[in-house]
Write a structure and sequence with these properties.
about 100 residues, alpha+beta, 4 strands, about 30% strand
């Protein structure tokens, strides 16, 4: 019998499995980075809170978290208030007041 050139089935299976794994890994990593709570700026936070009807005069501090909600401290009506913020790469902000 002649030996045919080419790749055997085991090698093709391993290449296919590794390709699927790498695609899933990099796709998941990209999705996690795009939806992380680090995509916001101080001016954007203040402007967004003001458009939602809050009387924010300044942003005191921010605590950026990659996976959990980020925490921001603002001065609103002369008092410091803390908000949790859910942000993504498209600058979609969702604020949750921390009482």
């Amino acid at each position: 019998m002649e030996k045919t050139e080419g790749v055997d089935c085991k090698t093709r299976l391993w290449v296919w499995l590794i390709s699927i794994y790498m695609f899933s890994f990099w796709g998941g990593l990209l999705a996690m980075i795009c939806s992380a709570n680090i995509w916001y700026g101080i001016d954007g936070i203040q402007a967004r809170l003001m458009t939602e009807g809050h009387n924010v005069t300044s942003v005191v501090s921010t605590d950026r978290n990659f996976i959990k909600y980020s925490r921001i401290t603002v001065v609103e009506d002369g008092q410091e208030k803390i908000y949790l913020i859910d942000a993504n790469i498209l600058a979609v902000y969702t604020f949750y007041p921390l009482e």
